[in-house]
Amino acid sequence: MDFRQHTVQCASPTGLHRMAYTEWGAADNRRVVICVHGLTRNGRDFDTLAAALAPHFRVVCPDVVGRGKSGRLLDPNAYALPQYVADMVTLIARLNVETVLWVGTSMGGLIGMALAAQDGTPIRKLVLNDVGPLITVESLQRIATYVGVDPVWATFDEALAFVKLVSAPFGALTEAQWHHLTETSITQRADGRWAFRYDPRIAEPFKAAFVDKDIDLWPVYEQIACPTLAIRGAESDLLTR
Description:
Blueprint: E1 3-12, E2 15-24, E3 32-36, H1 47-53, E4 58-62, H2 81-95, E5 100-105, H3 107-116, E6 123-129, E7 134-135, H4 137-144, E8 152-153, H5 156-166, H6 175-183, E9 186-188, E10 194-196, H7 203-208, E11 215-216, H8 218-221, E12 228-231
Parallel strand pairs: 3-4, 3-5, 5-6, 6-12
Antiparallel strand pairs: 1-2, 2-4, 7-11, 8-10, 9-10
């Protein structure tokens, strides 16, 4: 099934920025699913899921600002949940719907939790993939080893090997799936080398706020009133049993 690519203009304290999103299914379908990716990923992670849902839903997969084909923020300190939530409210307004269903992986789940906890939230059902109300210090330490490092590779195969390494908790993917995750998250520079599409400065607020203990988000989670499904990957350290 074909998809469409669009952008929406969003605001931050230091100016305007573009947020790109991929859309699947009938544009006039009022049943909308928003799928939001993890910290360094992008909306194309959901291609397989979106294609499966598209006969029944309008599926929208944004690239959170600083990732994928979206613009970058002038102030890296704004790469944080308040900005991401504000951008999603702008996106939902662009879609011209009153309610949405939400699928969030990792950071995308945190954005969904924060929005779902608000009075008057547009989220009617929430799926949390590999994230919950407690973020383990082990996962934070693992993420801190690679986020913002901004590596470059001489060949696509080198990039593929790196993605496999840092994304090992994704599980036993096929070679075709690893190839897709890689090709949609890297770009070839003018000198022929490959690099990630995301702004390495997204790491600055992450590392500035880094703590040596678990992050407790139960006060946010307990404000969520909509039906919520949590999906836990057995090989992941982000969400404990």
